[in-house]
Amino acid sequence: xxxxxxxxxxxxxxxxxxxxxxxxxxxxxxxxxxxxxxxxxxxxxxxxxxxxxxxxxxxxxxxxxxxxxxxxxxxxxxxxxxxxxxxxxxxxxxxxxxxxxxxxxxxxxxxxxxxxxxxxxxxxxxxxxxxxxxxxxxxxxxxxxxxxxxxxxxxxxxxxxxxxxxxxxxxxxxxxxxxxxxxxxxxxxxxxxxxxxxxxxxxxxxxxxxxxxxxxxxxxxxxxxxxxxxxxxxxxxxxxxxxxxxxxxxxxxxxxxxxxxxxxxxxxxxxxxxxxxxxxxxxxxxxxxxxxxxxxxxxxxxxxxxxxxxxxxxxxxxxxxxxxxxxxxxxxxxxxxxxxxxxxxxxxxxxxxxxxxxxxxxxxxxxxxxxxxxxxxxxxxxxxxxxxxxxxxxxxxxxxxxxxxxxxxxxxxxxxxxxxxxxxxxxxxxxxxxxxxxxxxxxxxxxxxxxxxxxxxxxxxxxxxxxxxxxxxxxxxxxxxxxxxxxxxxxxxxxxxxxxxxxxxxxxxxxxxxxxxxxxxxxxxxxxxxxxxxxxxxxxxxxxxxxxxxxxxxxxxxxxxxxxxxxxxxxxxxxxxxxxxxxxxxxxxxxxxxxxxxxxxxxxxxxxxxxxxxxxxxxxxxxxxxxxxxxxxxxxxxxxxxxxxxxxxxxxxxxxxxxxxxxxxxxxxxxxxxxxxxxxxxxxxxxxxxxxxxxxxxxxxxxxxxxxxxxxxxxxxxxxxxxxxxxxxxxxxxxxxxxxxxxxxxxxxxxxxxxxxxxxxxxxxxxxxxxxxxxxxxxxxxxxxxxxxxxxxxxxxxxxxxxxxxxxxxxxxxxxxxxxxxxxxxxxxxxxxxxxxxxxxxxxxxxxxxxxxxxxxxxxxxxxxxxxxxxxxxxxxxxxxxxxxxxxxxxxxxxxxxxxxxxxxxxxxxxxxxxxxxxxxxxxxxxxxxxxxxxxxxxxxxxxxxxxxxxxxxxxxxxxxxxxxxxxxxxxxxxxxxxxxxxxxxxxxxxxxxxxxxxxxxxxxxxxxxxxxxxxxxxxxxxxxxxxxxxxxxxxxxxxxxxxxxxxxxxxxxxxxxxxxxxxxxxxxxxxxxxxxxxxxxxxxxxxxxxxxxxxxxxxxxxxxxxxxxxxxxxxxxxxxxxxxxxxxxxxxxxxxxxxxxxxxxxxxxx
Length: 1151
Description:
Blueprint: H1 18-41, H2 50-76, H3 82-114, H4 131-156, H5 160-171, H6 177-209, E1 237-238, E2 243-244, E3 275-287, E4 290-301, E5 307-316, E6 320-328, E7 331-339, H7 340-352, E8 356-363, E9 367-376, E10 381-391, E11 394-395, E12 398-405, E13 411-421, E14 426-430, E15 444-447, E16 451-456, H8 460-463, E17 476-484, E18 492-496, E19 499-504, E20 514-521, H9 529-543, E21 550-556, E22 560-562, E23 568-569, H10 572-583, H11 593-609, E24 618-625, H12 636-647, E25 652-658, H13 664-672, E26 678-681, H14 687-698, E27 701-709, E28 715-716, E29 722-727, E30 732-738, E31 745-753, E32 758-766, H15 771-776, H16 784-802, H17 807-824, E33 831-837, E34 843-847, E35 902-905, E36 909-914, E37 919-924, E38 932-938, E39 943-951, E40 962-971, E41 976-981, E42 984-989, E43 992-997, E44 1002-1006, E45 1009-1014, E46 1018-1023, E47 1027-1034, E48 1046-1051, E49 1074-1080, E50 1089-1094, E51 1097-1108, E52 1117-1124, H18 1125-1128
Parallel strand pairs: 3-13, 8-34, 20-21, 20-24, 24-25, 25-26, 37-52
Antiparallel strand pairs: 1-2, 3-4, 4-10, 5-9, 6-7, 6-10, 7-33, 8-9, 11-12, 12-17, 13-16, 14-17, 15-16, 18-19, 19-30, 21-22, 21-23, 27-29, 27-31, 28-30, 31-32, 33-34, 35-36, 35-48, 36-37, 38-39, 39-40, 40-41, 41-42, 42-43, 44-45, 45-46, 46-47, 47-48, 49-50, 50-51, 51-52
């Protein structure tokens, strides 16, 4: 029989009565207010977005409601006091039940992680957060709560005396049933729930902002050892183009221990950033001119905060990168070669999930930069490893293998190991002192008959710039020069693994006489160092002409002039007269490349038609230019066609392109199309030496009309076998496939025209001659013949594609190049390298770079390939090399330019590039029309740059936009002032004044200051080699109701301002230290926020997009940057109003 209810306590139905329901509603409100209070008590920079907060707290709320209503239901089913039974249930739920729920969460978490169900891991909702993940986690949590409640019910089935004792203890002292109900339904649950909710939510929040991190030995770091910065470890891999999630983080958010065998890593020398370079190793093996090179760097982040670790190396131009791996705390990323569109599709898919990054590849002097950047937590070990292959070309009678050594810091272990294996025999090996006298005697060379070993292993003490310095003296190129023995004039045949390589470099031949025309660009853009160095080089080159040579000079700008209208013999008198002529050249005017080249071909054709050329002589044109045509024929394809038709098959054209902004692709096309080659000459102090070195490579023609012949039934897929000329000191290489199944010997026959005879040179080789040698040498590359054949074939097809006359032929060649690239695992312009982790859910992308002024592939933002660019005299940074823009986690360098830059454009947006930290920081200035803002004020160099604001025609959205309508430049030391507005450009020198209009292209040169105007586009100001500025013109359509014409300004950070420079831009000549951390979602997914520490200030910044208008003045190109609010307050010195000046040429007042 059921027991009767006690006289004390609340009655049956009290829990669900009107008063009970009111108390429950009040409990829910109070508990919710507790969670809201906690949210708003959190530091603003650490708050989770509302969506994440709701997901986190809702699981707790749903579980609590389920337990609450279950307890009410169970309490009302009994004959006992329901208040006492509810309270007993609640106490058991808050103690034993919480332990059961904790155990349940642990078991379920282990199970879902084991099954790799990432969206079911508690607290992980994906990026962006997915509702499906929340629903799945809620469902699992409810199962756990239901199991917990079942077990609690079983506990309540223990003997009734226990419950009776508890009832007496808990509620016997409360005589009033309503008061008992208040205690049971409101006071106790509120206190317990508030504490539990607060604690559990803090733990969840802690999980979001602080992951388990390991120190260098793999042990867990204590909370006290962590800095505030190290608590935020999201976006762990981050490159110049895009952010990239950490490769060191596993599915459960923890970091794996490193599995690499590093050994003891103590005693590392660290810079201020606390990054230690444990090892820097280069291994290169050259097998019959094929160099396989590996660069490996092992680094450690010993700071107490996450840091960017940069792997930035240079590889020779023309080399094919075939592998890149990265190991971050034991998580390995490996590479594969994919067709470009497929790679970009996979990359885009990963990017949409926040799992993608880019690797920057850009062009340098004779090298190509390969750069990636990784943001890693404290204690992380990371290893980079890059592999590339190249064919070592013979130039000036030697093979030169160049390895770039720029580790950037002292390495505990540094090693360069080069092995040479040459079956022909090694004639000599030489390692010039290219790294400087500091490393005399450190390099060791061991040379055998057919093998050599070069080793460079400086100790840490030897690497130091000085005995007490912490910086490294290793900064340059490690160069190995060698040559091989030659026994046969017919060349050396090497046959192995189904391929043959034919090396042809005959010696001891008399040089052929040459007929050479030098065509020199003397337009305004050649002014200054370029022209000075060109004149110096030409004087040296003219002195090296042989008596049997004939020559002439053509110089051109918008007009074409000839020193002599016909070829003359290179007698001492004629050479001296030519030197005097070039000494009088003064650059000015435009560029008429088409007419200059046609004049040169006319002179050569006329001389040939008149019988003035020796039948055995070699005729060539050497073009020296630094820019695109601006006068006469402007269409590059038409110029190429005109030159091709005029030269026919008689002469060779060699092109020297001076400067970074030259259209090197065009010069390369017309040179290749006319049996010549092109060379980029960088406009610096070494211009003269570079030009003379190039000339020396083509100055001694030994043979012409060279033809290689092989038995057709035995060989196939032979590379180029017919050559126009052979120059002394070089080498011709031919490769192909050979069927050795029924062949014992391979024969070649080479025919050529020499100075005094027609030559026929035969070579015979046993097809198995190399087998024994290759098997014995453990370092020799057994695939060297295949790789050399592929290298030559791909390069040949790329050259053929550049000159293909039809689109159909170009498509067929492209298809062949793509297949070759995939088959042989090399990156070409039509393939990309994907670097993926083992689970293939985190991806990096590397493309092959192109000419700095052009995009490379579909989907990039490059200039139109055949569109003329009239940027004469514009410095390199003014022409943008575009790369894909990706909206990814933190961006540390501008995505649209290989040369980063400070800029102010639009209304007005400031973008400051910080070279050391490689970040773009941006801010807006909102001031009134008519105000003049100081951008640069440098009393030491006497330079001022000010900008005057103009307003829009009327307000838009209750705001009057302002823009720069006028810029003033004052060069005090020269006494020159330049005023640029939207109508005119004015140069003032005391009482002297000259004015140019935006409607015409033109140049002004005065006191070593060059002003170049590109019609309706931009103005470039160059002050010697020290400074340059570009002002961009924005036109709006006539009678626009709101907008007005305005200007933007672009200033490279390389400008040589003094450390005392001030101004909104000038102050960043001395770059401040900037730390950005605690990255978190913002109000919108595409605009995350972070905390920035700079100049002693802690700022909240937002990542967003600004515009670079250099390539597209209408829509601009997106540039990612961290935006500082409140007119740059905290980032700039003082207040923006401190930078207002009274006049257009005023210096900023000293503080």
